[in-house]
Write a structure and sequence with these properties.
By secondary structure, the protein is an alpha/beta fold. The protein folds into two domains: 222 residues, ATPase, nucleotide binding domain (Nucleotidyltransferase, domain 5), CATH 3.30.420.40; 208 residues, ATPase, nucleotide binding domain (Nucleotidyltransferase, domain 5), CATH 3.30.420. The protein is built from 15 helices and 24 strands. The strands form seven sheets. Strands 1, 2, 3, 5, 13, 14 and 15 form a seven-stranded mixed beta sheet that branches. The chain has a seven-stranded mixed beta sheet with strand order 18-19-17-16-22-23-24, with helices on both faces. α11 crosses α12. The longest helix has 27 residues. The relative contact order is 0.14. The structure holds adenosine-5'-diphosphate and 5-O-phosphono-D-xylulose. Adenosine-5'-diphosphate binds next to α10. The site of adenosine-5'-diphosphate has 16 residues, from α10.
């Protein structure tokens, strides 16, 4: 039996799974936390990886490994490969006005989607390199190379014995890579940064790019959403909805997406196809924040939410506690709307928080379907998908059948599957065990439509752009 490992180096933590390369069976796991904040030293990801893998038996007999990492983060390196500053993460909004400037400078949203498939927002790496050039000229002058979080961690795990490497999936989130030609757009790097930068080589999806000092083969790795797609065996017609720090909704597509509204980003997947994706800034942490406000743990939060009726008796939670990215409202604040003396209950507040974060993605799914084709099923994943309330409420907001898989760490499992692919030469057919299948009832479909109309009305009236 060959053994492989997958690493999920995502916003809040580092998770490692060790799997049987033939069957995908999970043999061992490890995890450690990342520091809070939207700008962190890259070294913290390596420290968390070391902590998560501290038990020497965890990686025993592992032959190959890959890293799935949070997308878009800017890791700026000097000539000797050392970070010039803390990495700016995908959810750092300081580059919001840089994104707007770049949008205009290239000729508008249409020009961007034609060039790279996505419209720049603060999250995209291109906006962050512009921010660096404008705001920290000394650090910008010292920057020789910019890599993404998963590129950086793979390079460190390989003891820096090869040059930094990325993959097509994660590169597609920079906004300076064209996933239809698989080439960097040097002109866009020049536009954003004022000069050329060294960029990581783009490896093939099944390539072994090097090995660790202990002799574990390293596959190219990819962005966390691309890895989740691999881990969940995503196929045409299904969408994944992930509720981690971010909320994401994505599907597989044979063609590049070019959505000038900016709702759907035109990313690439980890197999050579495309991964149109909607991302919100407000996922699981809005639920944690609401549970804290109510003074309850997640179990009681779920019980409360499930004790309220669908629609939370008209209470709407506009989930912009961290600003927002889709729609592009980086400075927005959250709101609780529609309260009266009768409906102002902890149960309705808890349910509305879940309905609110899911509605943002339900809205995204409508646009996603325009580009990825009809979507007849949603696979729910990410930390907050562990909540029974999120699982049960999802069909009444999304209006679609919802599959909850027994695969909790879909990103790490996807990375392990990529490692098995690189090791054996063919993408192994790992089964995805299901935990539950929730069919929407007629009442769920009706509730989903009512919630959509209500939330869309509020957001359109209260905010200037959607
Ligand atoms: N039962 C639950 N109910 C709601 N949220 C949960 C539950 N369990 C975990 N979470 C949340 O999931 C998040 C972590 O999810 P994860 O997908 O690992 O995030 P990330 O990939 O962004 O690091 C945390 O914010 C945590 O509070
Ligand atoms: O920016 C995006 C997708 O475009 C985020 O989905 C990040 O990739 C972070 O993911 P999580 O850590 O929330 O899973």
């Amino acid at each position: 039996m060959s053994i492989v490992a997958g690493v999920d180096s995502s916003t809040q933590s580092c998770k490692i799974v060790v799997c049987d390369a033939d069957t995908g069976e999970v043999l061992r796991t490890g995890r450690a936390s990342h520091p809070n904040g939207t700008a962190v030293p890259a070294g913290a990801w390596l420290s968390a990886y070391r902590e998560a893998s501290a038990d020497p038996s965890l990686l025993a007999e592992v032959e190959a490994m890959a890293v799935g990492g949070q997308q878009h983060g800017m890791v700026a390196l000097d000539e000797s490969g050392e970070p010039v500053r803390d990495a700016l993460l995908w959810n750092d909004n300081r580059s919001a006005s840089d994104a707007v400037d770049l949008m205009i400078e290239l000729g508008g949203a249409e020009a961007w989607v034609e060039a790279v498939g996505s419209v720049p927002v603060a999250a995209m790496t291109v906006s962050k390199i512009r921010w660096l050039a404008r705001n920290e000229p000394d650090n910008a002058a010292r920057t020789a190379q910019v890599v993404l979080p998963h590129d950086w961690l793979t390079w460190q795990l390989g003891g820096r014995s090869f040059g930094p490497v990325t993959d097509r999936g994660d590169a597609s989130g920079t906004c300076y890579f064209d996933a239809t030609t698989n080439l960097y757009r040097d002109d866009i790097v020049e536009l954003a940064f004022g000069r050329q930068l060294e960029l990581p080589r783009v490896a093939e999806p099944q390539e072994l790019v090097g090995e660790t000092p202990e002799g574990i083969g390293l596959a190219a790795g990819t962005g966390d959403n691309m890895a989740a797609g691999l881990g969940l065996g995503l196929t045409h017609g299904s969408a994944v909805v992930s509720l981690g720090t971010s909320g994401t909704a994505f599907a597989q597509s044979a063609r590049q997406t070019r959505d000038p509204s900016g709702v759907v980003a035109g990313f690439a997947d980890a197999t050579g196809a495309f991964l149109p994706l909607v991302c919100t800034l407000n996922g699981a942490r809005n639920l944690a924040g609401t549970a804290k406000l109510l003074g309850v743990d997640f179990a009681e939060f779920a019980r409360l939410a499930l004790s309220a009726p669908a629609g939370a008796e008209g209470v709407s939670f506009i989930p912009y506690l961290e600003g927002e990215r889709t729609p592009p409202l980086p400075y927005a604040k959250g709101e609780m709307v529609g309260l009266d003396l009768d409906n102002f209950t902890p149960a309705n507040i808890a349910r509305a928080a879940i309905e609110g974060i899911l509605w943002s993605l339900a809205y995204g799914l409508r646009t996603l379907a325009e580009y990825a084709g009809a979507l007849d099923r949603v696979i729910l994943t990410g930390g907050a998908a562990q909540s029974t309330a999120v699982q049960q409420i999802a069909p009444a907001v999304l209006g679609l059948p919802v599959t909850v898989t027994a695969v909790e760490e879909s990103v790490a499992i996807g990375a392990a599957r990529q490692a098995a692919w690189a090791l054996g030469g063919t993408l192994p057919d790992w089964p995805v065990p299901q935990q539950r299948e929730l069919e929407p009832t007629e009442a769920d479909v009706k509730a989903a439509e009512e919630i959509h109309q209500r939330y869309h009305g509020i957001v359109t009236a209260h905010y200037t752009r959607i």
